[in-house]
Specification:
The chain folds into 2 domains: 2-134, Jelly Rolls (Sandwich); 137-207, Orthogonal Bundle (Arc Repressor Mutant, subunit A). 43% of the residues lie in helices and 25% in strands. It is built from 7 helices and 11 strands. The radius of gyration is 19 Å and the shape is elongated. The N and C termini lie far apart (40 Å).
Amino acid sequence: MWDSFSEKEKSILENKAVLKKAEANTFLYDSDETCSGLIFVCSGQLRAFYTSESGREITLYRLLEGDICILKASCIINSLQFDISISAEKNTVFYVLPPESYKTLMESSIEISRYTNEIIAGRMSDIIWLMDQIMWQSFDKRLASFLLEESALDESNTINITHETIANHMGTAREVVTRMLKYFRSEGYIKLSRGTITITDRAGLMSL
């Protein structure tokens, strides 16, 4: 997209974007901050999640290097209303473009407006896929997929994560996670220790 920007548009991005850093396991934006701006991840890993009225969480999607989040900038697009929160899962460096600056760019450039719609459509696809998993997939399949995804993100068979954290990611109770993990252990798929899960049978999890 950069090559299609005018010099004025590039200048707005360069001068208005704010570079920020966040340490792992820190909270960045809650659902009450409805218009934080456009977020662009340089390095690290952010988590976008929804919290129910009862306090239960579910991960909507992750933001990795090069990813963009616009769902925290609802004031840019009037019909966009998402009460999501964002936290850092790893040490993260990211840019935040203030909503008024990005709105100026959208109004001046058809290309930027089109690209924004593509970003929103992609995130909506992620959320619809998640809804499909929750509604139609059994929990053992969802948990197996989650463990394999975490292993890929960490590039290791050993995952440093608690049962409570998994429950928050998957929108369920810790007891449900613990029960299924014990079943996985009995089947030889994983080994469990305090705060750690080690995948011992990747093929078994993949078969689920």
